[in-house]
Input
Amino acid sequence: MTDASTPTRTATSTAVLPPSGSDRPPPEDRRPIVRPRGRHLRARIGSVLKHAGLIAFGFVMLYPLLWMLASSFKPNALIFREPGLIPTDIDLSNYTDGWNALLHPFSHYLINSALVVLGSLLGNLLSCSLAAYAFARLEFKGKRLWFAVMLMSIMLPIHVVIVPQYVLFSQLEWINTFLPLIVPKLLATDAFFIFLMVQFFRGIPRELDEAATLDGANHLRIYLQIMLPLSMPALATTAIFTFIWTWNDFFSQLIFLTRPEMYTVPIALRTFVDSTGNSSWGSLFAMSIVSLIPVFIAFLFGQKYLVKGIATTGIK
Amino acid sequence: MSVIQELSRSRRSASPRKKGDGRWALFFLAPWFAGLALITAGPMGASLYLSFTDYDLLSAPQWVGLENYTRMFEDPRLLKSLGVTFTYVFVSVPLQLAAALGLALLLDKGMRGLALYRSVYYLPSLLGGSVAIAILWRQIFGADGLVNQVLALFGVQGQGWVSHPDYALDTLMALNVWTFGAPMVIFLAGLRQIPQMYYEAASIDGASRWRQFRSITVPLLTPIIFFNLVLQLIEAFQSFTRAFVVSGGNGGPSDSTLLYTLYLYLKGFGSLDMGYASAMAWFLLLIIGGMTVVNFLASKYWVFYDD
Output
């Protein structure tokens, strides 16, 4: 990112402006030496205040998360009495209790979620890149129409198709399997990623394809040996978003998974809330933290791609 | 280049260069075509059909004509959920975008620590849709929750925000505003695209910073504001998880958090009134589609395109 290369821009740009203004005679050149220094000081105080404000705001924003983390180590009684972050009494029993609070140990749900995520990753990476290649590089009849259809499908609310999908999948006896969650991804229904990859493919120089064509490569080889290797950033963005969205997805998992042994993490957490009510926030928080860790790790390592992804296509 | 720019782009562009690759296209698009037919378009048609029937999943659908649609306007819960949803969307989205724009403006210009600030503000957007955060919200705004503990430090006696019909929806709106990070990142990218020379030229001409903001930043940012607005509105209309978890799955207290999608879920998958749920889904599509069209029409009056 370019941020690191220009860390002092705010300081210099305010300092540079007055002299460049005072090169031209009127109206400010009566005290050309005193003014810049005064401004410089003002700018620095302003900048310190701004940073203080931004840090305070960030802290307030993240406070609930930090507090949940801290509370997950506190005995239940303290959660209702301690708004602070430092626990006066550290207790790991929330984690052991929470882990075993439901019908299956929490690892069972983590594995289920991981399976769904893995299938979705594979599906999106493969099917969306195939479709994107067609839209970015091939000429065919009705291309513009299909492309528009693809774009519009990004914004289609899932509610419009969920009932017939449920009927279809229950006739196939796929309810309480992971297939209703994975098969659609294998069929490129997450059109957002097609769009993302089309954008990326368009930026790859066509000369490369043309050279390969001259060497006798067909489209499949160009896709496999030129496009995919050069599109690692787009594939990484797709992978990270797919991971986080699938991991957090609640609506479709709630509908298609109703047997406890098939529960994924979000459904298990929701069952946990229902079964404990307000009695054991500690273990509920502990398992919530566990459920957020994978997303947080994806965020830490994939930040660059996440930011790029939303900046170029604009969907969170 | 965003989805919206892509869609609203003028139709003519260079295309017929060489003879078609029809067969290859069929090969590369095969999964997508199958998905379109089986997972998207087919079910859309089926749901349109079901919306004119009485269907409970167990027996065959019975044709009832427009009855589901007319029932909707006599259903007090549906009208209530529409009100709740409109309030949620049209209050929280503008606030969320205002926060996103404000922070993006503060963070622009390659300041020190930009990447770190951006990450910190963006993180809630990634987590905000999860069940875990909804659980956290339910505790924070509960009677003995974090908010009231903090208020107690100042001697204020709070109440159970999520269990009070007048405030429960506010907590959901607060959650939506909390996730301003994603539109903020988009604003940041937009701000970076404004050529620095415009500002330089303006300051040589003696324009104040406020004047520069009004005459350069705002007009050049309107396409991004528009894009964020359209997207966040569409997304907010589909909010589900937070209302489901915070209310314990019923949209309470007294339907004050009964977002439209939650009611749709309760109708379709709770009471298996799937014809009605399908009609509701199509009505939702109509609302979202209509709102988006209005947005595009209105954009002619306030969105400024450079090219």
